[in-house]
Amino acid sequence: MGKKITLSVIKADVGSYVGHSNVYPALLEKARGMVSGSPLLIDSYVTHVGDDINLIMTHEFERNNGEIHQLAWDTFLACTEVAKKLKLYGAGQDLLSDAFSGNIKGLGPGVAEMTIEERRSEPIIVFMADKTEPGAWNLPLYKIFADPFNTSGLVIDPSMHEGFLFEVRDLIENKKVTFSAPEEIYDLLVFIGTRGRYCIKSIFHKQTGEIAAISSTQKLNLLAGRYVGKDDPVLIVRCQSGMPAVGEALEPFANPQLVSGWMRGSHCGPLMPVSVEQSTPTRFDGPPRVIALGFQLCEGKLIGPQDFFKDVAFDQARQTANFIANYMRSQGPFEPHRLPENEMEYTTMPQVIKKLKDRFEKVR
Ligand code: F6R
Ligand code: MG
Ligand code: MG
Description:
Layout: E1 4-12, H1 25-36, E2 43-49, E3 52-59, H2 66-85, E4 110-117, E5 122-130, H3 138-146, H4 153-156, E6 164-170, E7 175-181, H5 185-192, E8 198-205, E9 211-215, E10 222-223, E11 226-227, E12 234-238, H6 246-250, E13 258-261, E14 267-270, E15 272-273, E16 289-298, E17 301-307, H7 315-329, H8 349-356
Parallel strand pairs: 15-16
Antiparallel strand pairs: 1-3, 1-4, 2-3, 5-12, 5-16, 6-7, 6-8, 8-9, 9-12, 10-11, 13-14, 16-17
Helix pairs in contact: 1-2
Bound molecules: fructose -6-phosphate and magnesium ion (2 copies).
One magnesium ion binds next to loops.
């Protein structure tokens, strides 16, 4: 066992090009300059998925450390300045508050942090998605940590056979509950199938109590009971030696699931696994993308990354996603391609109802 280190993944969209598609290189350079020189960090890696900047950082502080969150906030502010100068699209859009007060949570950026004692070898995967929401991790996390058809280790590895604990958050009432898998999988599924409300926050190894996965799930961005923006989510998964193998963690993404997000955060479409290079939503601002970067941790150093979804083994998944995208698009403004009213980020319903209010007649 090594010393305790914390892995913090903090992300924000602070301006993109062209439209909501990509992060301009000058912003990534700015972010790299800000974090790579920081004496607070052991190591860092800056990347992007679609229009989101992702800061992957290691350090010896605990989670929710004010200085680390400040560093991320200052980095996003500095990137916003660059974005404003270049008139990039939506400059500063995820920095919802002008004032930082010690914790970045709830201010716009997404956060996933885990404190671990490094094992003899510590393989981890950071999943990052664009044009979707935190509930998008529910299905893959269930498969990785509770489905024996996905993860053979649950059946044949004695160090995984007891299963995992799932902490689920109710994003609307801001409550949490923990389920034990496999005994309680039916109860667990009752909740996590409702992805817009119940999200898997973290997963623990039952035998050792160790953290196995953590997502950026946080309180919903609600204003007057309506969505004001979906939070493109991130997820950290520890792999191997009693945790799911790397290939078991990647496996669910081979079959693109339907997620909420896509155009105007108001449509349902397939989550397409792609390389960092291919993570630039185009068609109908999508389809939603997910990238997976693998690292070996070494005393907090990030050895890597390996861009997993670059592999040809995911070519078929991309084709399937394109096929599904085509089919879903053919439904135009009809549900279930268009999300139900209460899950849409954009709606003209109140204005249209107001305009037509005198034309509605009571049916007797
Ligand atoms: C979805 C997203 C885009 C925008 C769309 C309209 O998360 O970011 O699909 O919603 O491009 O953007 P505005 O309203 O900025 O013109
Ligand atoms: Mg954007
Ligand atoms: Mg985004």
